[in-house]
């Protein structure tokens, strides 16, 4: 059996063995040329370069943190201003109630002033007050009334065509 295998596939086995040998030689050369492990690349760098890179990274982090702190301060100031404005509105409403005036009227005036200032900055679409409804108030799709020509009627019972 071994003799018949070698006589049938001998040349193929020999060529495969040569190809495997050459492949192993090439891989071993490439591994020998490459430095061993990831630590070798770090050791090859100069310590001064590493220190400068770490210092630059720390400085960048510090700058980003300072920018974040500035943004947080701005946000706090805006929140304080909004709270102060709300407090002023409440005081104005209370004073108008004490005088016997309607505080809702003052509130509507304030909202209109805000809307005018907001309308100047951005265009907001407003609904039309005199808009007609699409259908009459008595429309019911199940009743069959007022539907026009598209009403459904069941077919006749019994045999289809007389005979």
From TrEMBL:
<feature type="compositionally biased region" description="Gly residues">
    <location>
        <begin position="135"/>
        <end position="149"/>
    </location>
</feature>
<feature type="region of interest" description="Disordered">
    <location>
        <begin position="102"/>
        <end position="163"/>
    </location>
</feature>
<keyword id="KW-0963">Cytoplasm</keyword>
<dbReference type="GO" id="GO:0036513">
    <property type="term" value="C:Derlin-1 retrotranslocation complex"/>
</dbReference>
<protein>
    <submittedName>
        <fullName>SELS protein</fullName>
    </submittedName>
</protein>
<feature type="transmembrane region" description="Helical">
    <location>
        <begin position="6"/>
        <end position="24"/>
    </location>
</feature>
<keyword id="KW-0472">Membrane</keyword>
<keyword id="KW-0812">Transmembrane</keyword>
<dbReference type="Pfam" id="PF06936">
    <property type="entry name" value="Selenoprotein_S"/>
</dbReference>
<keyword id="KW-0712">Selenocysteine</keyword>
<keyword id="KW-1133">Transmembrane helix</keyword>
<keyword id="KW-0175">Coiled coil</keyword>
<dbReference type="GO" id="GO:0030970">
    <property type="term" value="P:retrograde protein transport, ER to cytosol"/>
</dbReference>
<dbReference type="InterPro" id="IPR009703">
    <property type="entry name" value="Selenoprotein_S"/>
</dbReference>
<comment type="similarity">
    <text>Belongs to the selenoprotein S family.</text>
</comment>
<dbReference type="GO" id="GO:0036502">
    <property type="term" value="C:Derlin-1-VIMP complex"/>
</dbReference>
<feature type="coiled-coil region">
    <location>
        <begin position="61"/>
        <end position="92"/>
    </location>
</feature>
<feature type="compositionally biased region" description="Polar residues">
    <location>
        <begin position="108"/>
        <end position="124"/>
    </location>
</feature>
<keyword id="KW-0256">Endoplasmic reticulum</keyword>
<dbReference type="GO" id="GO:0030968">
    <property type="term" value="P:endoplasmic reticulum unfolded protein response"/>
</dbReference>
